[in-house]
Specification:
The protein is an alpha+beta fold. It has 22 helices and 13 strands. Strand 3 and strand 4 form a beta hairpin.
Length: 526
């Protein structure tokens, strides 16, 4: 406890927040008072400086004195925080809670039988119903015997106090110290120890590794996303790290990222941040990708970011633009990055993107083949967890879809496209209508999805048959759209009559639209 208060023991930034509820902390303390094993504390002793947790409750953990080694806790944070809070009577607010837990109100039940495992020694209710003593008073190094005797006149209770105080003073805490290990090894130890707990996030580790008084990776990342999210793009932290690693080492596996030089990362940040912004601008302008919601894969932040970093210019040439479009569609429609994406990205930046940077047409292997049949696409279910679904949504937005009612451009927004029930997604044959006609189980197909605005979707179309709500804008309709035929081609519906719309023929509509979209997809990857 003294070492922690003096800054010689630290909780790394990549450790999870304090999450133990009071009853779990009480069970842990109960084990100590029963002289049971509580597991081992594992600490990494090093002269390296990482970004670490600054506060534990209301207590500010001081910086380690210059030149001194520091012990970073790799295993045992929850136990250590509990001990510290109880020893100091420190209130700590757990993650996700607004009210702090007051650890000064933890008690030892002096009437409990230590040999009876069904009785709790440590109590958290206040005031306790049994004769008890605060743990904070129990560990007081200078207790006044007279006060103890006055408060606890029963000799049995006095004996229990003496016993529990001795247990705390003599308990053997097991500690493993790892000396002079490199960061990668220390992190690997942490991962192996914590395989059953909360998954360690690589980004959190890199925040600690790159810690510098003039550089905070978390703040830099947040600043980047504050800009990109304004136009609908949330860049995953993993993608940023992968891009940095590919630039520095032409590999982006976690092991490689952990071994990167801190100063190299810091010096590269501004260029990487700019490359990502250029990549997003290109995806938005040239592919009409409105945001992360329909981006087929986060790998495109990495590979397109890599292109713009290597290209060194804000705009690709016309030829490079065509080559990048080919790469986009072949990668998306082959589901290239659905598996071991780190290996795939590393191979592709070397074999494809580097060639495109030079203005050369790269050679694509069979792994980029579009393997789906026309019938696969016709019957593809609408799910935004699918790369193919997102790819087809990109195809729909690239067409520049127009409003059904007045042929004006649709206002497509990322936050209206995030989930399958979002405002811009419209089942051309409404699901409620299809349930009445016996097609309810096949209603949620990609081929039944068109893009509209919120007003049309919720107030005009609703559960009406297509022949009913489309008649409103047809020739002679109450709100005639004189360019309706042109409007519908921007939704891959070339002929309302030939697509079965006026006869409410759902099967024909799905088949005809599926053929048209499948043909377009084949052209994109040919």
């Amino acid at each position: 406890m003294n070492d922690l208060e003096r800054g010689f023991i630290k909780l790394p930034e990549f450790q999870r927040d304090f999450v133990w509820p009071p009853d779990q902390s009480a069970t842990f303390l109960d084990s100590i008072f029963r002289e049971m094993p509580i597991g081992t504390f594992t600490v990494w002793k090093t002269t390296d400086r990482l970004q670490s947790v600054k506060n534990l409750g209301n207590f500010t953990i001081p910086d380690t004195p210059p030149g001194e080694s520091v012990q970073y806790v790799l295993d045992g944070q929850q136990r250590l925080a509990t001990l510290f809070a109880v020893c100091r009577g420190e209130p700590i607010t757990r993650r996700g809670k607004k009210t702090p837990t007051d650890y000064s109100e933890f008690y030892v039940d002096l009437d409990a039988d230590p040999n009876d495992n069904d009785q709790n020694i440590v109590l958290t209710e206040k005031p306790p119903t049994h004769k008890s003593i605060k743990i904070l008073d129990l560990i007081d190094p200078n207790p006044q015997a007279s006060l103890i005797q006055k408060e606890y006149p029963d000799q049995k209770h006095q004996n229990q106090i003496t016993h529990y105080r001795e247990v705390l003073q003599t308990y053997n805490f097991s500690i493993i110290e790892i000396h002079d290990a490199r960061m990668a090894k220390a992190v690997e130890i942490f991962i192996r120890i914590n395989t059953g707990g909360t998954k360690l996030v690589l980004f959190e580790i890199m925040i600690a590794i790159t810690y510098d008084k003039n550089f905070n990776l978390r703040k830099k990342y947040d600043d980047l996303n504050a800009i990109t999210e304004q136009i609908g793009f949330k860049v995953p932290p993993q993608s940023v790290l992968q891009l940095i690693s590919l630039i520095l080492s032409v590999d982006c596996k976690s092991k490689t990222i952990l071994s990167l030089n801190k100063n190299d990362i810091i010096n590269l940040w501004d260029a990487v941040s700019n490359a990502i912004k250029l990549a997003i601008g290109f995806l938005q302008t040239d592919f009409k990708v409105v945001g992360t919601s329909i981006l087929p894969t986060a790998a495109f932040f990495v590979t397109f970011g890599y292109f713009f970093y290597k290209h060194g210019k804000p705009q690709p040439s016309d030829k490079q633009c065509d080559l990048l479009k080919k790469y986009f569609w072949k990668s998306a429609l082959s589901e290239r990055y659905s598996g071991a994406s780190e290996t795939a990205m590393a191979n592709d930046v070397k074999q494809l993107i580097d060639e495109i940077v030079k203005g050369n047409s790269p050679q694509y292997g069979p792994e980029f083949n579009f393997k789906f049949t026309e019938q696969d696409i016709i019957s593809w279910p609408f799910s935004l967890g699918s790369t193919i679904t997102k790819s087809i949504m990109c195809l729909l937005t690239s067409k520049g879809p127009l409003r059904f009612d007045n042929n004006s451009p649709l206002n497509l927004q990322n936050n209206f496209l995030v989930i399958a029930l979002s405002r811009n997604y419209h089942h051309f044959f409404p699901q409620a209508y299809l349930k009445k006609t016996g097609h309810g189980s096949q209603s949620n197909l990609v081929m039944n999805i068109t893009l509209v605005d919120d007003f049309l979707n919720k107030r005009v179309i609703r559960d009406k048959a297509p022949s009913v709500y489309m008649a409103k804008w047809n020739t002679g309709g109450s709100d005639e759209n004189k360019k309706l035929a042109q409007t519908m081609t921007t939704h891959f519906i070339d002929d309302l009559d030939g697509f079965g719309v006026w006869k409410d023929d759902y099967v024909k509509f799905i088949q005809e639209r599926g053929k048209l979209i499948y043909s377009e997809l084949q052209k994109l990857v040919a």
